[in-house]
Amino acid sequence: MAEQHGTPTAGRPRGRSAVAVPELVERARSGDPRSVARLISLVEDASPLLREVMAALAPYAGNAITVGITGAPGVGKSTSTNALVTELRKSGKRVGVLAVDPSSPFSGGALLGDRIRMGDHATDKDVYIRSMASRGHLGGLGWSTPQAVRVLDAAGCDVILVETVGVGQSEVDIAGLADTTLVLLAPGMGDGIQAAKAGILEIGDLYVINKADRDGANAVRRDLRNALALAQREEDAWRPPILMTTAANGEGVAEVVTEMERHADWLRASGELARRRARRARDEIEAIALTTLRERWSSLGSHESLAGLAVRVAEGTTDPYAAADELLDTVVT
Amino acid sequence: MAEQHGTPTAGRPRGRSAVAVPELVERARSGDPRSVARLISLVEDASPLLREVMAALAPYAGNAITVGITGAPGVGKSTSTNALVTELRKSGKRVGVLAVDPSSPFSGGALLGDRIRMGDHATDKDVYIRSMASRGHLGGLGWSTPQAVRVLDAAGCDVILVETVGVGQSEVDIAGLADTTLVLLAPGMGDGIQAAKAGILEIGDLYVINKADRDGANAVRRDLRNALALAQREEDAWRPPILMTTAANGEGVAEVVTEMERHADWLRASGELARRRARRARDEIEAIALTTLRERWSSLGSHESLAGLAVRVAEGTTDPYAAADELLDTVVT
Questions:
Q1: What CATH number was assigned to the domain covering residues A61-270?
Q2: Do residues A238 and A264 touch, judged by C-beta distance below 8 A?
Q3: Which residues of chain A form CATH 3.40.50.300?
Q4: Would the ipTM clear 0.85, i.e. be above it?
Q5: Residues paired with A183 in a beta bridge
Q6: Tens digit of each residue's pLDDT (9 = 90 or more) over B14-48
Q7: CATH number of the domain at B58-270, please?
Q8: Where are the CATH 3.40.50.300 domain residues in chain B?
Q9: Using the beta-carbon criterion (under 8 Å), do A166 and B198 form an inter-chain contact?
Q10: Which of A25, A169, A228, A305 would best serve as a mutation to test chain B binding (most B beta carbons within 10 A)?
Q11: Which pTM does this prediction carry?
């Protein structure tokens, strides 16, 4: 997963035999885990086949519920994801897990520690687990994450868990990506004001206080309840429940799954599911369009290129608005 | 600072008398704090005068050193910023502070708690303090932050401190914005692996362990030193120092300022300053160009508009790549 490239035209040297995309999609849909893995690799490597893959997947989209799991480092995201997979498997659900690891802006590397803890499900053929490197551009989730969601969706997953790191911008991103956003908290991670600062109060559909066996869990619940009570909500809006878990021993996890299902029912009944998905598609289309434009303007001649304009702005011989106009004039006509 | 709008064409109702931009820039450069505040408001409100403001500021850019201050909630960013201002004022430096608060994706509101703590410098005419709402788009810092930096730079600040929230994506953003990136840590905020997860190891030019009087500060230093030692650096690269402070009583803060100055000298001598600034200008030009394009394609007819395409992708009747092509074909020719 530690690749150096991040542009959509870069490709991994192929040592594998070429397989036709329609056949690969067919096999993935019939439950072949290697075909699913191969499709996600094509997506992640931004293979030249990417467009063909996306076109082949389109008719099979929209059956899975995507659940984003976010929270500060140390709240137990991986342990909770693992416990949720165990619980979902009890009712026979096919589950996909995308773990979006932080990547260094320099090395593109991803830390693998978390993945090891997911080993419980490594041999279960109805669980797909994939660690994705975050590419940095266009939001913390990386532009290939929504495409990997499409692969798992078309492959017949009932639920796709997207585990992301961190506090801050990436939470807003995951709220854009997911049908359901699950915000994880734990005692000892900072007081109420700090929770509000992290911007979590508007994005959660479910709040889960993990490590509920530790001191301070009830105080976190009380603070969160008070903070959520201040948020103005429409009459018929979803009211996010606050749940308590000890993911390490599975306590409370069944209730989280029950609430996830209740939220999915509400999404469908209220029309919010279609709205969220259209918003997600809009972001994805825009990201792809912008990537295409970036490629066009990075291939311009040196003076009118973005790099050339940037030097002129840094020197003070032009300003960024005039430079942006020049850039668009060259590329857009 | 709790405004509802975030689009570049929105404007605040004007109750103030119109002032010509060149005059405003002239007054700001002669040290009039109200003119500086007015210029930043024009930037933040995305006033119709914005282009004129940027063009008028361009010739005066590039004198200030911009220092980004980042770290997880609870490490003491505001207290440290405050202490750094006090220290910088001792040597007569003019200081600008931009505090980029988290904004709700829904309300656009900013928490004001931190600002109150900066009251020490509220009456010092050589210190400009401004709280900016993070607009969410195009990175956690918001697209108006680099423009506000330009205002403070042209107004004669020697140092501009940009304090941002959080762990995750916004750190990478601030590394892009600042000449010098100062990463704040504190004991009790998670172990070494968690620090690595937060992606801070590549972005810091200075590392400051605050709350050095608390248990565990030395352990944080040891872990950080070990983690930084693993990073590969070029022979002549800057080696980020690790400093210890107790910002609440000012201990160690003078050393931080000394290291900030040493880093600024290195930036100039090595050519890295010009490279970083060209990169920053490039990001800014691109953000402005993309905003312009977004406006164009949000004004298209309903079927070929982004919203119409998004519904078709969500329904599975087209795929995101084909939709992006359609979008670009309509806007770009």
A1: 3.40.50.300
A2: no
A3: 61-270
A4: no
A5: A70, A207
A6: 445 567 999 999 999 998 888 998 999 888 877 78
A7: 3.40.50.300
A8: 58-270
A9: yes
A10: A169
A11: 0.62
